[in-house]
Amino acid sequence: MGILVLGLLHVVETRRYRADDARRSRVRLVEEDLRDPAHKIAFAEAYTRRLRRVSLPLFLVVLAAWVVRILLVAPGGDPFASAAVFGLPGRLVVASVAALAIALLAVAFWPRSRKAKGELQERGKAGDRKDE
Question: Which residue spans traverse the membrane (predicted)?
Answer without folding.
Answer: 54-72, 92-110
